[in-house]
Design a protein that fits this description.
Elements (H helix, E strand, L loop, with lengths): L7 H28 L3 H22 L9 H27 L2 H9 L1 H12 L7 H20 L1 H6 L5 H20 L10 H21 L13 H27 L2 H19 L5 H26 L1
Helix pairs in contact: 1-10, 1-11, 2-9, 2-10, 3-8, 3-9, 4-6, 4-8, 4-11, 5-8, 5-11, 8-11, 9-10
């Protein structure tokens, strides 16, 4: 297992790889959820593909992958509960709000994690300069919220999923750093990766069933391009799972937490494509399809 000390070049590579995956996955997930409004289904597919891929590595001997041992499974069960909740809240927040809102809430998480880092993981508190920078993020987030039209109209109800995401992921980030430590003696970082994804499949599937996501399958656009987007999201999901644990093993929980909103900031420019003629064509086709379905439903009702 890599250690935090003496791996500056390795840590830099891990952070860059993780940041690239994070910014890409946020945009891809937003597009996928637009066409397949079933967050649990999308997440379950990503978890399953990642698990199958890692099992393939184990069977072929391409990588050392830990088997499932109760001593290791137990702490990851707690993490999985938080992990599934954050993924679902993130997906629901993307469904009901925009990418900017997620990034704003996510940008405030490092301030909380830095305190958890100090209280439970034995890290030093951020320097005054770092604390000031984190507070600037909070001030910016508050300014965004107060100026957002959705907040003015619906109050905090407009941010219910994003707020739940904020609190749960703050604890998850600190706990994730703890369980990637050397005390669990994983053979490689594929161990934490398969544990997280395999243990998350059934809980996320259950969440989807309990929330009646299957009833929304008819409203999804099951085109070839949509399935391609889903496949790409599964590939990037596998990559971000591995690089996420890789990065966690090399840097502090606070540093890891700061990376994600920074990476997601790069997706803002990409997300603008959805509002341009390039993305407008796809949206127009989706609207036409929806309109046709509604007209057909009206015709059947009249018959």
């Amino acid at each position: 297992m890599p250690k935090e000390e003496g791996h500056s070049a390795e840590a830099m590579f891990a952070m860059l790889a993780f940041s690239a995956c994070s910014s890409s996955l946020l945009l891809i997930n937003k597009l996928v959820i637009h066409y397949i409004p079933m967050p649990s289904f999308v997440s379950t597919a990503q978890f399953a593909v990642c698990t199958i891929f890692i099992l393939g590595l184990r069977i072929t001997g391409a990588a050392e992958v830990d088997g499932f041992e109760w001593e290791k499974v137990k702490p990851y069960l707690y993490y999985t509960i938080m992990f599934v909740c954050t993924i679902y809240c993130n997906m629901k927040a993307l469904q009901y709000s925009n990418i900017e809102t997620i990034i704003v809430f996510r940008s405030c998480v490092p301030l909380v994690v830095s305190q958890l880092d100090y209280l439970f993981l034995g890290r030093q508190l951020p320097s005054p300069a770092s604390t000031g920078a984190l507070l600037v993020l909070v001030v910016g987030a508050v300014g965004y919220v107060l100026s957002d039209a959705a907040f003015k109209l619906n109050g905090w109800n407009a941010y219910s999923w994003a707020t739940a995401y904020f609190f749960i992921i703050s604890v998850e980030m600190a706990y994730g750093k703890h369980i990637v430590g050397p005390h669990l003696k994983f053979k490689s970082l594929w161990g934490p990766t398969i544990y997280t994804n395999a243990l998350a499949v059934l809980p996320m599937l259950a969440v989807g069933l309990l929330s009646s996501e299957a009833s929304r399958a008819d409203s999804a656009v099951w085109s070839g391009s949509t399935l391609l987007l889903l496949a790409v999201s599964c590939i990037i999901g596998t990559a971000i799972s591995f690089f996420g644990w890789y990065c966690r093993s090399l840097v502090t929980a606070t540093c890891y937490t700061v990376l994600r909103p920074q990476a997601r900031g790069s997706s803002l420019g990409q997300s603008r494509l959805i509002s341009t003629p390039l993305g407008g064509g796809a949206r127009r086709r989706k609207q036409d399809a929806d309109r046709a379905r509604k007209l057909a439903a009206v015709g059947q009702a009249r018959d």
